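Write out this protein's structure.
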Amino acid sequence: MKALLKEYFTGCLTIPNLLSVIRILLIPVFAVLFNNGDYLWAVIVLAISGLTDFFDGKIARKFNQISALGKLLDPIADKLSQITIAIMFYIAFKGSSDETVKAFSWIFLIFLIKEAVMVVGGAIMIMFGLKPVAAEMPGKIATFAFYTIMCVIMAFGPDIGILGSVYTLSATVMLILVGISVVLTLVAFFSYVPGVLQQIKEKKNS
């Protein structure tokens, strides 16, 4: 355990890691703005968060600042962001004036449960001296789809769409988009299982 912690904090003072910390700090800011109905500012904060996510990886690779802590902070920031977005959307659509949207607000809880399991599971793995499995292509695709679809909903969704005066998504179209994101999220979740099982097997044999 001590060796693992030493590995995480060796060479951790880097710009990419700072950007990941900033992204984590922006999460409650987004939540407060969204909860107060300041959807435009919430989108701006989410966009800034997305930029930090984009640049931390670019900088880490370009300047060889990839670190063990960075590999941990980046997915944590992603998961906490997605958990917060899922909670905010669930609350918003639970009180929607559209009965269809209101009836299917529970669908956002799937994102919440998946990310919560990933965060708790990752913490347990670290406690037992294992490394959380890095995101593979299914995870990256699911994350991209999640943010893209959530941004579309924040722009054109019923009740909360900041561009709703220009165009508003029908409840059916919105739920289809969310459904696609849910399917990709579940595929990504199960894609982590082989890596986790492999580490457990190697741990037992060592």
